[in-house]
Amino acid sequence: MSNRPRSSLRRILEDLGSTVLDVAASPGELDAEVTGVHIYDPLDELLLAEGNILLAVGVDRAEQICALLDAAGPAAGVVVKQPVDVDELVRAKVLETGVAVLGLTRAASWAQVAALLRSLLAEGDLAEPGEAPADDLFSLANAVCALLDAPVTIEDRSSRVLAYSGRQDEADPGRVETVLGRQVPMRYRRMLEERGFFRKLYQSHEPIYLELDGDSIHRAAVAVRSGDEILGSIWAAVREPLSDQRQRALADAAKIVALQLLRQRAGADTRRRLRADLLSTVLAGGKDAAEAAGRLGVASERLCVLAAQLSGRSDGDAARRESDRQRFCDALALHVGAIHPKAAAALVGSVAYAVLPLHAGSGGEEESRAVRVAESFLARVGPRHPANIGVGRLAGNLSEVARSRADADRALRVLRAREASGAVAGYTGVHFEALLLQLADLAEAEEQAPTGPYERLLAYDAEHGSELVPTLRAYLDAFGDVNAAAARVHVHANTFRYRLKRLTEIGGLDLGDSEARLTVMLQMRIFGR
């Protein structure tokens, strides 16, 4: 993996524009190399890699900023919500440490700015030495902005913002909201659909002009296409229809953007495959795990493996399912990366695996913390991505990661067996259920079958259409409480007692024998009949 910087602080500020980030206090030139994003947590030890941007959540006073600058060490910059409390002490501390203080607009959430920064930094991920940097849509958006003399966004088919130009503060509140959320708000998309503008846009090979109501600035847009495939669109906020010259400029820009998007698609697929291969090597824990971990930039000790899988229906278009899985994995990578700069996630088959480094804790606390991280992630993605996550035990080093991955897979399998959705399970919490599933696999592989009283009861039910096995299961589940067991199978207690007597006679089962009860209970769980 190349060690070249992904971007400079100045470049990031130019790409984001003053709509999102502004300089509150600078040590001078803003040429510091930016390598990643870290979210400040006062409850955790601050471990920053060189060149990280630190998102100072909850920090607002000058003395807090000074303390954070002292602790930030090799950071490229510290981001604080506006208005930033900058006094002479803060300015002096900025000059002393060489770390810039940036102000984040109040309208933006920390999740939004983390996503924006990570998307800008992602263009250099997993590039090999000598490999050209990925195409820069943000630079292209700025070039189109200069040609049209209007702020521009480049969007995909789902109205997600892929890149945007500067000067967004010249547009209307709807555009600012779009840039901050990296998505056109639903109310605007619904309005455009109702007015038939999307249909008109995608049917035309020329730019389209749209007059908006109220205080909104009008829009000029053009579809970005590759042959018959619609890749996205370019939107310019304008106050009047474009001249013929600017119409041609926008149409020509759409062709260039199409090439960029196709190249990025191919590059993203390659990088994702490489990331998945490297993470698979780390998860295997063999002799090549250390090299793969180094190339991924992940930690090599005190790790928990998370295994996440979408739990929705698997029917429908295969390409759509794969796209959903990849978006889900990208969201997981963003979430764990915000927690620790040396975390990583990749899609391996239908499961998104994450390797999460954890600080030292006491007896089993690490797994609980990893479970909370997983629960927090599922709460964020919500109904958009119904999923389950299994969490493995703590791996002290790379040689133990394979065990943690196996733990996570088994916990995830328990959740699938429960037909759960939106659930998280740590391996230690579902250990016995996982063992039973393993025993069931062994019994199936060796073509074993039920024996003893359980075998006789199954055969009797199959021959006579009786309900002796469900009766026994209800009795055992109710800990021998006949009334509760009878209610479970919806029969009178006397009827239940009669069935209970019959099954002990037919099966030769002594319900007073604890070993006999355990044997039949385990067979019920293992053979699942």
From TrEMBL:
Domain CdaR GGDEF-like: 288-414
InterPro entries per record: CdaR-like_regulators, CdaR_GGDEF, PucR_C-HTH_dom, PucR_C-HTH_sf
PucR C-terminal helix-turn-helix domain ranges (all copies): 468-526
Domain of life of the organism encoding this protein: Bacteria
Family: Belongs to the CdaR family.
UniProt protein name: PucR family transcriptional regulator
Organism: Streptosporangium jomthongense
